[in-house]
């Protein structure tokens, strides 16, 4: 796709997401969670979504709010159960949302494979465990591996620190998490950033997600959210 | 830094410390910290293993990895230090040390899966005598499965240390002939640190390095497994 569109509102940034889409959602817990894009997606109304994210929502914000709105058919994640994942827990126990649990590194690598044009890969993680049941295995160099397939999205919603007007992104600390890899793995990549800066003002050596991956960009005010366990 | 002077020095032969009680959780954390080679790259699992960090001083040269994308993780953040963008794998606020580095998730787990980490310390429900690990699921039918990075850590680090009590609150052994809980990894645990004993898992079986508040013979009887001595 050509250069990223810099949009004025999160609502414009999520326009056109269709019912039944697979949506990659960045973030690890609340760090790197694209809150404003998710809130806009709730307003936009797309339904029957498959969500790919590390967790299945915290508290009642972000992904938890999307789940609570009843828009999610299936969650593919590594760690749904947390102390504050009560929205997901309730929906799951009521049979209202499907779940595919994937080891965290395998989740990241399946996204990476999708973005890098890899058809499938043999992975040592999970061999001999319930998460490898029914999957093809192969012994390579005396070690057993399990065949894992890519996960691609129709849309990726990610959060970064700054973006330039071409769509180059830089992140901040551990909020980087899934952003760079999800940015490679979806047909349409939407990034919310704290600030959009002119092309040329980011250090090219420090760009983490090159502009080629980013389709839509919107600046949102930094959100000061509560950190679990903060003292 | 808690005092670790009460922990006896390691010896080449197994030592039965029957003149004292079992190790406290803090003593156990100190013992593990002392056994981690200086300069190692180490991942500490969520829960009890994070206590090991309290006993790794700057002089240890140990670099902590957190799987959400950081090397050089510092102590827990408090007050003004709390930054929502800087958290550990347990999603608690932490700090960064000089020389820290950030990276994305695929890199973080490539680091792990690729065998670059020297040691990881994990909690466990059960460990088998062949080093199988069960630490992610109790097998209850209505439990919501959540694996996180446990399986990646179990098969990734060069040495996988387990930190746990040797028996459940109900007295059931947690070192077992074969795990009854769903597995996290197969033949992956290299050493088991517990309140009552430190055990090596070798190709020839379980080897007792040290015991605390119990003899090897007593533990063998209670566990119903065979243990060698070094």
Automatic annotation (TrEMBL), chain A:
GO molecular function, a single term: CoA-transferase activity
Pfam families: CoA_trans (PF01144)
Gene3D superfamilies per the UniProt record, alphabetical: Glutaconate Coenzyme A-transferase
Keywords linked to the UniProt accession: Transferase
Matching InterPro entries: 3-oxoacid_CoA-transf_A, CoA_trans_fam_I, CoA_transf_BS, NagB/RpiA_transferase-like
Keyword check for Ligase: no
Top-level taxon: Bacteria
Family note: Belongs to the 3-oxoacid CoA-transferase subunit A family.
Protein name as catalogued: 3-oxoadipate CoA-transferase
From TrEMBL, chain B:
Protein name per Swiss-Prot or TrEMBL: 3-oxoadipate CoA-transferase
Top-rank taxon, per record: Bacteria
Keyword Transferase: yes
Lineage: Bacteria, Bacillati, Actinomycetota, Actinomycetes, Frankiales
Keyword line: Transferase
Region (Disordered): 1-20
Cross-referenced Gene3D superfamilies: Glutaconate Coenzyme A-transferase (3.40.1080.10)
Organism: Parafrankia colletiae
Record Pfam families: CoA_trans (PF01144)
Basic and acidic residues biased stretches: 8-20
Family per similarity comment: Belongs to the 3-oxoacid CoA-transferase subunit B family.
GO molecular function: CoA-transferase activity
